[in-house]
Amino acid sequence: MNKMVILVTTSLFSAFLFGTIKANAQTTGYQVISNQSASRVAPYHNANNESHYIWNLSHTIKLHNLENFSTTTWTLERVAILSHNGKKAVYFNVTDRTGQFSGWVWHGFLKGGPYQYHEDSNADGLNLSDPANTRDFSMLGNYIYGKLSADGYLAQPDLMKLTQYYGTRHTNNLNTPFKDAIMSENMTLDPTNLVGIFEYPVSDLTKMIDPNTGDILLEDTGNGELGNTVTAQIENFLKANHTTRYGLWFNLSGSASNGTLSLDLVYMGIKN
After folding, report:
1. In whole angstroms, what is the distance from residue 237 CA to residue 268 CA?
2. Average pLDDT over residues 192-218
3. How far is residue 219 CA from its own chain's centroid?
4. According to the UniProt entry, where is the signal peptide (predicted)?
């Protein structure tokens, strides 16, 4: 009799446990078929401004709503195939540029490329590469020099040499007095009339590119403001020192998408 009770109890418990597992499986209804790293790290943005959820991988917890991230550029990290009711779908694992928000979202709710402002009167239109290369260096330089020239500012040859001296040797010559640098390079400048700004690197690059939200990826789309911001800083500096003659050196390196984009900047003027 006792054996029969134990057998019946065990059978009922097994049936209950199996039924619970089956019910949970039916509740979620999602199976992970594959989950692998993306073939390349790429930027994405919302396909529209509607309400779409970002989930955990098992598709049981809503983590975020895309409509709250309308201007966000997402970085694709992983790609998974989920099965639901016999149908397969591709999901992207994405992270925002701060690393604070991430999760899995159906790929159709996103579009390739970084988020772009469509109306920005101060955009420089440069479309920098990612990572930055010599083409970008030339493009940014031509843009800045062209605007300075159009606004009546003149590049002074010896000042250009002096800014290059400090820029290319900044690791060990930052504290070299103007007089010593001028003598070592055989220049004819008067060190008592020189003023300069030295930034290795600039401290607020994201705000220079996008003053509104700090989206550094905008400089890869032509909607960033780096060229105009640098030009404005130089012109304000020259105006404050009552001069139109300047020297400029800069170096652009790194990648916007992985957060390593960096700008070293040296500009000088001759006080009148």
Report:
1. 9
2. 90
3. 9
4. 1-25
φ and ψ of 226, to 5 deg: -60, -50
> Beta strands 110-112 and 102-106: pairing type?
unpaired
Domain enclosing residue 67, as ranges:
27-112
Residue 199 lies in a domain: yes
Q: What DSSP state is assigned to residue 52?
A: -
Whole-prediction pTM:
0.59
**Would you say 78 and 36 are in contact if contact means Cβ atoms under 8 Å apart?**
yes
Task: Kindly report, residue by residue over 64-102, the tens digit of the pLDDT.
Answer: 999 998 878 888 999 999 999 999 999 999 998 778 899
CB 207 within 8 A of CB 217: no
* pLDDT of 62 over the 80 cut: yes
Q: Is residue 12 part of a domain?
A: no
Backbone phi and psi for residue 4, each to the nearest 5 degrees, phi listed first: -65, -40
Number of domains in the chain: 2
For 48, the token pair is: 């529209």
Omega before residue 131 within 30° of 0, cis: yes
Partners of 17 in beta bridges: none
The identity of residue 89, as a single letter, is: A
DSSP annotation of 224: -
Would residue 15 count as lying in a domain? no
CA end-to-end span of the chain, whole Å?
111
C-alpha 260 chain-centroid distance: 8
What's the alpha-carbon Rg for the chain, to the nearest Å?
29
* 132-171 residue pLDDT tens: 988 889 999 999 999 999 999 999 999 999 999 999 987 6
With both helix axes pointing from N to C terminus, report the angle between 226-240 and 134-150 in degrees, rounded to the nearest 10.
Answer: 40
- 8 A C-beta contact, residue 243 and residue 271: yes
